[in-house]
């Protein structure tokens, strides 16, 4: 009996594993079609200048509306896109779409001349030889200056390809493109790399912002990163600001920009334009 039970358990287990593998496979094949079926969109979340209370830039964040599963989080589909290589196509689309949107806002007169859009770039895109060409292509197509585009790269993407990093980032800088290091504090970066690479902005990961007013450790870490950035002459972004008391504390500590639900969730193109109109009339007070 014990033996029979044992076999049953193994079967159930194998079955669950099988189902999960199938679900994963479905997600992959569905994602393959998502771009041209127009199931992917970009949402935009403002980064607020903490001194003036005005939007400084918008981060473009991919959204997938699956025909039957509904909304699928990027936390779920970006890793699938990365492991299958689909991120290359998805990333090219995101760059193009973000530039198209910014150009539209500019021609509609809602975007100030220096407003930027920030696009996430994954390690795999970074490792390829065509990233610079793809970026220049998007800028040219929509007649945008390089300074209006920011690329967000994680610490780990840079650490995985240190040689490539120097080369690619320098080429992008030559076109005035702004470089931000995303999720700073969660990976490993050598201080040497930070100093040598043309990185303009450090984005402090939201896991540190969440507890910065309650946890001594988080507070210390935030202060340390802000002071490091200021010594290196880099701007700073605090991600995941959910409350205005955090925004006030960060401003007092000299953090340059703030991003988070306290100011706005990521919203679609039209709502982002509306946010621009509203904040042009009146800055956010906090
Ligand atoms: P990320 O680049 O670090 O983006 C910030 C994430 O924090 C976004 O999650 C955003 O919605 C979320 N967030 C912003 N403010 C708050 C807040 O106040 N509280 C909380 N709890 N969360 C906040 P999202 O949109 O789910 O994206 C998750 C990750 O997926 C991104 O993290 C990025 O790594 C990746 N991703 C999204 N779109 C793209 C893309 O087009 N290309 C690539 N390569 N990665 C992308
Ligand atoms: Mg990002
Ligand atoms: Mg981030
Ligand atoms: Mg993050």
UniProtKB/TrEMBL annotation:
Residues 24-280 form the EAL domain. It comes from the Bacteria. GO terms for molecular function: cyclic-guanylate-specific phosphodiesterase activity. Transmembrane segments: none annotated. This is EAL domain-containing protein. It comes from Hankyongella ginsenosidimutans.
């Amino acid at each position: 009996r014990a033996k029979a039970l044992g076999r049953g358990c193994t079967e159930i287990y194998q079955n669950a594993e099988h189902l999960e593998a199938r679900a994963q496979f479905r997600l992959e094949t569905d994602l393959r079609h998502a771009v041209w079926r127009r199931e992917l969109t970009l949402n935009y979340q403002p980064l607020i200048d903490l001194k003036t209370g005005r939007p400084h830039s918008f981060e473009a964040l991919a959204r997938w509306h699956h025909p039957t599963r509904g909304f699928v989080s990027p936390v779920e589909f970006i890793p699938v896109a990365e492991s299958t290589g689909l991120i290359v196509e998805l990333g090219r689309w995101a760059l193009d779409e973000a530039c198209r949107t910014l150009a539209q806002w500019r021609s509609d007169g809602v975007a100030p001349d220096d407003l930027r859009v920030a696009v996430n770039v994954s390690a795999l895109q970074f490792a390829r030889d065509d990233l610079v060409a793809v970026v220049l292509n998007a800028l040219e197509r929509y007649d945008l200056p390089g300074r209006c585009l920011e690329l967000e790269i994680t610490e780990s993407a840079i650490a995985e390809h240190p040689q490539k990093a120097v080369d690619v980032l320098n080429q992008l800088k030559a076109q005035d493109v702004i470089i931000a290091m995303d999720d700073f504090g969660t990976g490993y970066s050598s201080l040497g790399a930070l100093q040598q690479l043309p990185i303009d902005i450090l984005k402090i990961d939201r896991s540190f912002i969440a507890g910065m007013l309650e946890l001594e450790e988080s507070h210390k870490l935030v202060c340390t990163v802000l002071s490091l950035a200021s010594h290196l002459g880099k701007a700073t972004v605090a991600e995941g600001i959910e409350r205005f008391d955090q925004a006030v504390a960060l401003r007092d500590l000299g953090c340059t920009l703030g991003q988070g639900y306290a100011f706005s969730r990521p919203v679609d193109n039209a709502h982002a334009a509306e946010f621009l109109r509203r904040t042009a009339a009146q800055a956010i007070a906090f």
